[in-house]
Design brief:
Blueprint lengths: L1 H8 L11 H52 L3 H4 L19 E7 L6 H9 L8 E7 L4 H15 L5 E5 L6 H10 L9 E4 L10 H11 L3 E10 L6 H25 L9 E4 H6 L10 H11 L3 E12 L5 H28 L5 H36 L7 H15 L10 H24 L16 H11 L13 H4 L2 H20 L5 H15 L11
Parallel strand pairs: 1-2, 1-4, 2-3, 5-7
Antiparallel strand pairs: 4-6, 5-6
EC number: 2.4.1.32
Catalytic activity: GDP-mannose + (glucomannan)n = GDP + (glucomannan)n+1
Pfam families: Glyco_trans_2_3
Length: 540
Amino acid sequence: MAETTTRVLIPESFQGGTYDIAGQMGLIWELIKAPLIVPLLRVCVYISLAMSLMLFFERLYMGIVIILVKLFWKKPEKRYKYEPIQEDLELGSSNFPVVLIQIPMFNEREVYKISIGAACGLSWPSDRLVIQVLDDSTDPTIKQMVELECQRWASKGINIRYQIRETRGGYKAGALKEGLKRSYVKHCEYVAIFDADFRPEPDYLRRAIPFLVHNPDIALVQARWRFVNSDECLLTRMQEMSLDYHFTVEQEVGSATHAFFGFNGTAGVWRIAAINEAGGWKDRTTVEDMDLAVRASLRGWKFLYLGDLQVKSELPSTFNAFRFQQHRWSCGPANLFRKMVMEIVKTKKVTLWKKFYVIYSFFFVRKIIAHMVTFFFYCVVLPLTILVPEVYVPIWGAVYIPSIITILNSVGTPRSIHLLFYWILFENVMSLHRTKATLIGLLETGRANEWVVTEKLGDIVKNKAAEAAKKPAPKFFKRPKFKFGNRLHLLELGFGAFLFVCGCYDYVHGKNNYFVYLFLQTITFLICGFGYVGTIIPSS
């Protein structure tokens, strides 16, 4: 009797000495697909389409505004009071304000000479300039090298100070804050900040400082970054494309329309009074620069971006260094948004329109939605709809909107337009890490306050190439030694395998030919997963 009951209740596919595992999984899938998977996936599609539209209208707005700015807006020298500072025959250099240069460092063996030399070469009266090297290095040898370099420049009459701390508390924010407490900087009116790989031109201060001197409501003048190693490999070329849009469009639009944008942490000059009024440097997130900028803006200070004032810098040329940098740049803003959103809402010193711009456009769409929709829609939801054909994705959401967004994003680097398609695939891979970091920042868990200094190589690659060119060719080719395990990134490899399965299913059963995109995206995930993205040399 019991045996008969068992045969009635259990489907035939579950019977037998050796269970048909594939049949069991197929049956379970059919049982839960209609009541659970299909409705849930449809909701995900609707949410993804809504986020895509938000990003689309944001990019469209930015595109329209930047065209108007380029065609009709006055140049910064015409919008603001501007007059070059000249030496007075009677007063000498006393009409030049005293400027502090801060160079934060951490074990910067390859680039410390570059940044110190560039700062010491600035065209500014030496008695009106204080250079402060804030060295948090933990390597005694590097600390000694940096100190000796400072002493070398001091012997030439440069007012340069070498500062160290007992601990790295607060990381970069802590170092900058500690530097402003020194008694010898109390008479400084402005502070210019340069990371260790940045190389300002000699006329940098003479072009930036007059805006601050003649416009007392301006707190920050930000210069554009230019990259000395953008052609080193495909990885650096992809970064250049992303950052050029940020500077060419986002910073320019923010400066022209709201006199607000996020401070980039380097290559900018601050009014020290504005820093103090905003509450000084804070280390509550990994984006101390953005934190200070938002707080200063909420107190009514204005920012100015100068696109034609450019400072040379270096891009991360290894995939691991780039991943750590992107984690910090994605996690930090999300974490700051969590901590400051109510403060922005409650402030009474800025207009309602500016509050909306900061909360919705600056933070929500650009720092959160942009990462999430790229990953969830194009790497998760769209591939899953191939396995669940009952869920329909409209062609405008799957193809047209993303294409327009991509075209709008590409305006910053026209020389790399031929790399546009691979840039899309690479950005989809990086959206995995950016989304993960954004969620960590919003939830304030795990690695929310992790700070890993971006590795800088300076001219080491160029120097090694020059040395290799001088040496005779070896008789036998020696493979470079590296640990293969250090290059493996399992998360990328896992998603590559997932997309490959979806692509194969679409090739056999699909009707939309998504398999072309899926196979190309799979290859990109695998290239990144095996750590070879930094070894590919792009075509010019």
